[in-house]
Amino acid sequence: MPLRLVRGEGAKVWDSEGKEYIDCVGGHGVGVVGHSNPYVLDAIFNQAKKLIICSETFYHEERALLYKELLEVMPDYMGSVFLCNSGAEAVEAAIKFARLLTGRKRIVALKRAFHGRTFGALSATWNPKYREPFEPLVPEFVHVDPEDKEGLRSLINEEVAGFIFEVVQGEGGVYPLSEDFLRFAQELCRRSGALFIADEIQTGFCRTGRFFAFQRYGLSPDMVCLAKGMAGGLPIGAVVLRDSLGKLPQRVHGSTFGGNPLSCAAARASIRFMKENSLDERAESLGKLFLEGLKAIDSPLVKDVRGLGLMIGMELKRRSAPYLKALAEEGVLALQAGPTVIRFLPPLIISEGEVDFVVEKVRKVLSRDESD
User: Fold this and answer.
1) Which long-range contacts (CB under 8 A, 24 or more apart) does 70-75 make?
2) Cα dihedral sign for 187, 192, 193, 195?
3) What pTM was computed for the model?
4) Does one domain contain both 168 and 260?
5) Do 64 and 76 reside in the same domain of the chain?
6) Which candidate in 12, 23, 97, 114 is catalytic?
7) Active site includes 114?
8) CA separation (Å) from 237 to 69, 81, 127, 137?
9) Which one of 12, 23, 165, 199 is the catalytic residue?
10) Given this model, what pLDDT does residue 370 score?
11) Is 228 in the active site?
12) Residue 247 pLDDT class (50, 70, 90 cuts)
């Protein structure tokens, strides 16, 4: 979009002309704790004065404390963490770990899935527009329709290293998967020895009304991929592994910048802010308000409104790009999720008044074209 953003605070950003916006883009879901969060700012400033980079060759306190605090918000059976720099890197690591730990090659993913743009993550991603310019991709990746139990049953067997999924398919159109389908997939993985891998890169850290979306359905993943909202805006990613998977061989994988003191300090501050301010509960309650407000818009242009917590998609019967532009003119920034879906990923500190403002602006821009 032809906007140059220069400042952010809370759920708002300002452009170079001084215009104010409610930010429902949030860096593609990164801004969980809001712009210029004071917990994160203090952590960055204090850590930058001490140590910014420390190779994985050496121990450092911030990394050790982040390991501990990250495992504290995970199920008890999770026992180890690998730190990297992004969601795509986390997915890459999970693919490597799944193949190494099982001795198998095949990865099963879902149609509509988005797992990143690096070669392994892109191989698990479905949309041809991302894949085709870079083919051939990594072999031994197969895709199945979401909610297709029989299709999944035919694919998950003793040759599969892992099944990777998003509880809510974000880039694919904001489609929440059903509890029934995900529990079925988990059981197939348990029977076959395939690893059950949750991609919580966009859904994690309170976004969907739980600290992690898999917790909503009582799922027990073997690995969880994390990134985006983890460090208040600084680059970081992680894979958290089930303790029973055992230890990985030394030096089997690594990251130059992964687990650096600055990002670890920011992540610790972000997690503390999430816990102290119950952002999971806030996302649940404000998400319901937001969803109900959008569903109440009586417009023939609206095909569907869906989501969990503050991860919401409004599917239109037309292309969404003109409406995103009109919303920006009205002071609301939002995202596409496919050609016809408007996606809302606001900071979880957004207020009720700001949610109401967004809903009213959506109502206004849709009403302009209802008779066209």
Assistant:
1) 70/226, 70/238, 70/240, 70/267, 70/271, 71/240, 73/211, 73/212, 73/271, 73/275, 74/212, 74/224, 74/240, 75/215, 75/220
2) negative
3) 0.96
4) yes
5) yes
6) 114
7) yes
8) 15, 10, 23, 23
9) 199
10) 59
11) yes
12) confident
